[in-house]
Design brief:
heterodimer; A: 114 residues; mainly beta; B: 109 residues; six-stranded mixed sheet; five-stranded antiparallel sheet; 56% strand
């Protein structure tokens, strides 16, 4: 397996534009997490999906952020409209269904909003 | 929800010395405690983990200890090498990993 795959690796956009980040989890993994990493706040959980259903979205900072998982092999995180303070590295991670095993991270998307 | 505190935020050691990173957690339901290493510009990767039914686990130069009563766990790296330089994250999980803020370990040759 190629591991968790995220795209794009880097994204530079202007304030006010819509940004869509994409993630393909490892095949057979039922849980998917989106994290945001910044120097100030470390790794923050944004949202957790289990079997494609959002279970915990309490970490989503505001209504400008939304996430979907239409099937077991694809998830998106959308920011609309984007703001400079959204600049961060966004990681997607997956693991097996609630078995408390290793969470495998994608390579991350470095988002810069200017 | 779970809250994980990690100390120190920065740790500088000489090659060959030991390094210790400590974490505390708040949710007694957490039963899985992984440690991740993140090199500059890379993704976090698991280096060792421990479950709540075990007090200590060792893998070559790294070891983890867990005190469930006190809700704290630690990472120990012995005989540090320059390639150990990275950011280390602890996490506590019942099913959602909650991460500490990270420790930047610098090993000087």
């Amino acid at each position: 397996d190629a591991g968790v795959i995220q795209s794009p690796r880097h994204e530079v956009t202007e304030m006010g534009q819509e940004v869509t980040l994409r993630c393909k989890p490892i095949s057979g993994h039922n849980s998917l997490f989106w994290y945001r990493q910044t120097m100030m706040r470390g790794l923050e959980l944004l949202i957790y999906f289990n079997n494609n259903v959002p279970i915990d979205d309490s970490g989503m900072p505001e209504d400008r952020f939304s996430a979907k998982m239409p099937n077991a092999s694809f998830s998106t995180l959308k920011i609309q409209p984007s703001e400079p303070r959204d600049s961060a590295v966004y990681f997607c991670a997956s693991n097996r269904d609630r078995m408390n095993t290793e969470a495998f991270f994608g390579q991350g998307t470095r988002l810069t909003v200017v | 929800g779970e809250n994980v505190e990690q100390h120190p935020s920065t740790l500088s050691v000489q090659e060959g010395d030991s390094a210790v990173i400590k974490c505390t957690y708040s949710d007694s339901a957490s039963n899985y405690f992984p440690w991740y290493k993140q090199e500059l510009g890379k993704r976090p990767q698991l280096i060792i983990d421990i479950r709540s039914n075990v007090g200590e686990k060792k893998d070559q130069r790294i070891a983890v200890t867990l005190n469930k009563t006190a809700k704290h766990f630690s990472l120990h790296i012995t005989e540090t090498q320059p390639e150990d330089s990275a950011v280390y994250f602890c996490a506590a999980s019942s099913y959602i990993p909650t991460f500490g803020r990270g420790t930047s370990l610098i090993v000087h040759p």
